[in-house]
Amino acid sequence: MELFKSRPEESASSVRKAYEKRIDHFLRDVDAPTNLLGQRDKTLDGVFSWGKRILSDKRKVERSLDEYVQTYQNSQAQANDLKKRLEGTQARLQERESQLQQADSTIQHMEAEKHRILSQHAREKQNTLEKHEDLVARMTMDHSKTVKTLNDAHRDTERRTKNDHDIRVAEMTSKHEHEVNRLNEDMKKLVAQLLVSQSDNERWPDDKLKFKFNELRQLIDSTTSPRNREFLVPEGRTLGPRLDPTGFIGRVGSGRSHYLLKTAIWKILQEQFFSTPFGFGAFGPGKGHTEVTNVYLTWRGLFDGKKRTPSEDEAIALLRHDKTANTWRSATFQTINEALTGNSSHSQSLVAQLSAENTKHTIDRIWAMFLEVSKLSNSQVRGELQDEVRQMATLASQIAIQFGVHPAQLQLSFPKSGERVEIGADFQDIEDGEDCKGAVYSVDLVVVPGLQKIGDGKSDMTSKKCIVPCEIFPVDQS
Questions:
Q1: Residues ≥6 apart with Cβ < 8 Å to 475
Q2: Local structure of 277: helix, strand or coil
Q3: At residue 226, what are phi and psi to the nearest 5 degrees?
């Protein structure tokens, strides 16, 4: 075979040159470093070293290329993912744009609807305003007519009220004149009786009792009269629970406060002179009562078969049916009355001192009440009223002594608040008198207590006679 044909032998030098030439050619083809060229002695070793470096660099380049390829692939994957996400975002954006277009369309529709509603509201508002103006005009006309009707009715009512008031005043004036005439007649009868021989220490007949009691009443009426402006209670003010425990002024108004003042005075007099029956309260509820009652209890003990001294209640109860006890009581109080009104030698006696102390205490209580009431209207109590208060207390003391002098039982009629009474001889309406005779009312306020006599202290111990009727302010019946 030609492959294995022998070739002419070449010399080592020619072979070397040929290889060096081929190596230089190779090195130039591969852009080998120039320092390798022309170095025959080291060319082959440099080629090997260079080849190793080239191989090492190749491997580094391959590794870098693999990393670049991997990075490229990752970047391509990320790019694909971002592309997909972009496509999704673009789809959503298109959807949002579609929704935005729909929203714009809806807003335009709503704007149109709003404009329509506002226009309709403006028309309705105008119609309502016109209707309101028409309604106000009609109501104004109706109000004017109503006011005119009410004014006419008010004038008619005022005219009728005035006529009724005039009639009432005329009736009250007539009744007053009749009462004055009657009192004058009673006074004439009493004066006629007083002209006959009668000791001041003896019991007063019924007419004198009535006259003296009415005199006391007139003193109280005069002092508490509404013309005394210092005792007027201003609207909206009250007298407090001590003077007005039931709230009378709050129910009937301050225009009737003078009734409450009368009641307050009578209560003070009742507590100071009439708290115990048969005259034993004439010297007050304290020391005077004890001293006078002890005299009676001592006398009673002399006749009592019991070894013990009777109690006060037992001794007082005995006077309701025992003639002898009433005879002693009457005689004893006549002696007391003589000591108070007769011989001046008794002016320093204990009984006179007790009477004077009780009278002074009564005056002080009434005057303190006047001062308290006058403060409500920032007024001053006139000094001359002290004389009237002194007369009240003195006259009440004289009447209280007669409760002991008189052999019969004398008592004040003081019905309780809420008690039912019949208008007639024993009870009268403070404003209507006996006009409603036979009517049964509940008591709101006792303005003037009544004066009653029970029996005669002798054979009759039970029959009751009204000397002066009790005057009440009844509970509102409406």
A1: 418, 441, 442, 443, 444
A2: coil
A3: -60, -20
Q: How far apart are CA 237 and CA 50, in angstroms?
A: 131
343's CB contacts (< 8 A; 6+ apart) are none
- Helix ranges (DSSP H) in 311-470: 312-318, 323-341, 350-374, 385-405
Q: What is the DSSP letter of 236?
A: T
The pLDDT of residue 197 is above 90? no
Which residues lie across from 448 on neighbouring strands? 471
3-state SS assignment for residue 128: helix
Q: Is the confidence at residue 66, as pLDDT, over 70?
A: yes
Instruction: Say if CB 445 and CB 248 are below 8 A apart.
Output: yes
- Which DSSP string corresponds to 433-462? BTTTTT-EEEEEEEEE-EEEEES-SSS-SS
Residue 47: is it exposed, middle or buried by C-beta count within 10 angstroms (0-12/13-18/19+)? middle
Q: What are phi and psi of 277, to 5 degrees?
A: -70, 170
Which tokens go with 64? Answer: 């870098």
Tokens of 222: 């005069």
Among 278, 272, 270, residue whose Cα is nearest residue 295: 278
- Among 49-53, 126-130, 208-212, 352-356, the range of highest mean pLDDT: 208-212
Q: Are 318 and 334 in contact (CB under 8 A)?
A: no
Contact yes or no for 386/289 (Cβ under 8 A)? no
Range picked from 221-225, 290-294, 410-414 for highest mean pLDDT? 410-414
Residue 298: how many CA atoms within 13 Å on its side-chain side? 7
- Three-state DSSP at 197 gives coil
Lowest mean pLDDT among 50-59, 139-148, 436-445: 50-59
> What's the pTM?
0.60
Contact 417, 407 (CB under 8 A): no
Contacts of 469 (CB under 8 A, 6+ apart): 425, 426, 427, 428, 450
Give the CA dihedral 20, 21, 25, 26, nearest 10 degrees. Answer: -30
* 465 pLDDT above the threshold of 90: yes
Residue 165 CB contacts under 8 Å (≥ 6 apart), including other chains? none
How far is Cα 461 from Cα 319, in angstroms, rounded to an integer? 9
